[in-house]
From TrEMBL:
This is Integrase. The keyword Repeat does not apply. It comes from the Bacteria. Residues 106-189 form the Core-binding (CB) domain.
Amino acid sequence: MPTDRTIVLEKARHRDNMVVTLRFEYDQQLIDRVKREAGARWSQTMGCWYVPEEQFDLHTFFEALKGMAYVDYSGLKKRNNKQPMPNPGAIKPRYNLKTIKSQVSPGVKEQIQSFKQWMEQKRYAANSVKTYIHQLEIFFGFHQDKTPETITDDDIMRFNSEFIMKNRLSATFQNQTVSALKQFYQFHYNRRIISEKIERPIKRKPLPKVFSKEDLEKFFSGITNAKHKMAMMLIYSCGLRRSELIQLKLKHLDSKRRLLSVIDSKGKKDRVVPISERLLSKIKEYYHAYQPKQYLIEGQTPGEPLTASSLQKIFKATLEKTGIKKVYTLHCLRHSFATHLLENGTDLRYIQELLGHKSSKTTEIYTHVSNRALQNIKNPFDDLKI
């Protein structure tokens, strides 16, 4: 694959929103990649591809385009009269990922490969395998002068300060590195490499964003394509994750018992979700209209599932079309399902089962955003005779 392609990144204002523009010579492979990996859209007025600024992550973009194109991001740091100065902490210095990984010795590569095979045999999720291998290749590429046997806690802390912190990488990246190293050393050497003095960063625990019922009605009314509407309805009405919706097959639907089976979900768990009479009626209408072959929601090719990127594009396009200004994500539909159940009086234990949460503590987060629960709290200010 040629690597003489160049993508120039700049900031611009488009339809009263800040965006990152992607300018490059016409190349269908590049177009497919930036659309799939970055959710890029074409602007006829600007004559280029672009990504909304709040959805753009420079580090992720680099990784998606590595080996395929040179990314010139100098324009992201320029300031003009119309644009505010970007936050320096949001722009990560560029490092050559390909070079770092190439520094891993053949012996260590073999160890990483055998570790990968073990994870695959243990049926780790594909994304987990990919992430762990990625972290290990970067770590041992950084420590190219050392063998795994000689790595110490101090080496891990040096990687944290001289690579992760220096390049302003995320707390998630740091946690993933620690987790990958723990598993790697447990597998190969049956010992703990991470001592108590290796600090994991504190994870943010943001509250889930929830659609108001007014915004939900507006959202669903804005979808004219019956198949697209069915996909979004299933996510909300059954509290599905994006991957769960994509993997749903016709055989998972039991119309007589009004049940939907969610198979091999997160944590390798199955669960059953009840379907209301109204939703079942809409599913039947959709089925007769589209006649899916294998998957409940199929893409353009019969028998093949709808892709995650297509689902994301449908969601974003609907938000734009309906003029909903709040910043929602596709996962907010699942959050909204849980929160609205809680507000309707459903017991948390049942919500936990419906969502497939392993721990009740995960489900309890919805009590913090339940409008009904908050409104039932009596404010002591009301007792003051003023």
